[in-house]
Design brief:
Blueprint lengths: L1 H8 L4 H35 L3 H29 L1 H19 L5 H15 L2 H12 L5 H30 L1 H22 L12 E4 L2 E4 L2 H9 L2 H31 L4 H27 L5 H20 L6 H28 L6 H30 L2 H8 L2 H9 L16 H4 L1
Antiparallel strand pairs: 1-2
Helix pairs in contact: 2-3, 2-4, 2-5, 2-6, 2-7, 2-8, 3-4, 3-5, 3-6, 3-14, 4-5, 4-6, 4-8, 6-13, 6-14, 7-8, 7-11, 7-13, 10-11, 10-13, 10-14, 10-16, 11-13, 12-13, 12-16, 13-14, 14-15
Length: about 425
């Protein structure tokens, strides 16, 4: 009990910093490995005699695999423990990336990319579960905000080394270097994540016919999807995350094709987009942890910022570098600031024994949104021949998500409880 109260009242401990470093590095490598093919694809498809369409199916294969396992991965994380599932995901990344170095045909590479998505499915649920076990409610959002920065950083890292290695040593060497990252992450995280957390996962123990029973994984899943807040967060993710990745993936294209800036200028603008997104995610977490307002209220406020930034981005005057940098940077805030709080809510609205299941369920909707939004943008562009109209329509998505957030309520599960000992369970 003393250690439990100390974990709640004290400032961040060295162990908490080590835990955060462990999950940050583990999730970082997930982004590096998933982005590796996109980076080396121009060279690899020539070497392997692939068409551009075949190369693009490798990108799609990962996300199909990932979408398949996010929910069962979260359920397995609840069953076997968050640390074990995260290490398993990192080890899976190591094995698959090593195998990709030796790929020779279209089908073996496609299967490996699908496998990479499958083994990566549990990673986010496991990381968020670890945060709930090691950080109390007054520190979790800040910890989640810092953790989220690895997504933007992953894009930076892969572009720092992969093109250079590719030019000098070839695309197989670039994949081999990429395989080193999950190896390093596995070794570091294995030791960094050791220890007994102050807020361990609690399974429901109940009496039935004179026997003590625990809830099964399917029982926990049924309870999860019967929760209104879980469904509202799922709808939020479907629209807000879809809009986020839709506008992000199209931003470079819009800047070059519609606004007529050159590729270098577009790259500088998107670098600013990445910087503001990283800063905003940390700031959002700090504000939420140190405010008396509820998390879903702050999430709605941050998400409402997204719509006007998309509109402003769509109407950037041609040739105006100042407005280009301003609205691109602002859109980085709008697109990512809310994600710190919504990720936090995905585990805080869940009972302690369903955190992986609930976050996996919500993340499945996030992935669907990430698939659908770029397709919708493409269809609108084909119908209207207007990038601006495409962006204006997608700008409505965050507003739908804001409405859904208004129906989210943080449950009693947000209150940390004293760990239950084996003796007490018996």
């Amino acid at each position: 009990m003393e250690d439990h109260m100390k974990a709640i009242s004290s400032k961040w401990t060295g162990k908490q910093m080590m835990i955060l470093a462990g999950i940050w590095l583990a999730f970082l490598i997930s982004f590096i490995t998933r982005l590796s093919w996109s980076t080396i694809m121009p060279s690899a498809i020539d070497s392997l005699h692939f068409t551009v369409q075949q190369g693009n199916t490798y990108v799609t294969a990962f996300y199909i695999g990932y979408a398949i396992t996010v929910l069962p991965g979260g359920m397995l994380a609840d069953k076997f423990g968050y640390r074990k599932m995260l290490l398993a995901a990192v080890l899976g990344n190591l094995v698959v990336m090593t195998a990709m170095v030796f790929m020779h045909g279209y089908w073996d590479g496609l299967i490996l990319r699908l496998a990479l998505g499958l083994v990566s499915g549990p990673d986010l649920s496991a990381c968020l579960g670890i945060i709930t076990e090691w950080f109390d409610v007054k520190k979790r959002a800040t910890a989640t905000g810092i953790f989220n920065t690895c997504t933007s950083f992953g894009l930076t890292v892969i572009n720092l080394y992969a093109p250079i290695v590719l030019v000098h040593y070839g695309w197989r060497a670039a994949l081999a270097v990429t395989a080193f990252f999950p190896l390093a992450a596995f070794i570091f995280s294995y030791f960094a994540l050791k220890g007994k957390p102050p807020f361990p996962q609690q399974f429901v123990i109940r009496e039935k016919n004179g026997k003590v029973e625990t809830e099964t994984a399917m029982m926990r899943l049924k309870k999860a999807i019967n929760n209104r807040s879980v469904w509202m967060l799922a709808i939020t993710g479907l629209f807000a995350t879809g809009a986020k990745w839709g506008v992000t993936n199209w931003a470079n294209l819009f800047i070059v094709k519609s606004l007529k800036f050159d590729l270098v200028t577009a790259g500088k603008a998107m670098s600013l987009f990445g910087i503001t997104s990283v800063i905003s995610m940390i700031v959002a977490g700090y504000i939420s942890d140190h405010s008396k307002w509820s998390r879903h209220t702050w999430a709605a406020i941050f998400m409402a910022i997204f719509t006007p930034t998309i509109v402003g981005f769509a109407f950037i005057p041609h040739g105006s570098f100042g407005w280009l940098y301003f609205w691109t940077g602002a859109m980085g805030v709008g697109a990512f600031m809310f994600s710190t709080i919504t990720n936090n809510l995905s585990v805080e609205v869940a009972p302690p024994d369903q955190r992986g299941t609930v976050s996996g369920f919500i993340n499945a909707f996030n992935q669907v949104g990430s698939f659908i939004a770029p397709v919708i943008l493409g269809q609108i562009l084909a119908a209207t021949s207007s990038y601006v109209e495409s962006y204006l329509i997608i700008a409505a998505f965050p507003l739908i998500a804001v409405v859904a957030l208004m129906f989210v309520r943080e449950s009693d599960a947000t209150q940390d409880v004293e760990p239950v000992t084996q003796a007490e369970e018996k």
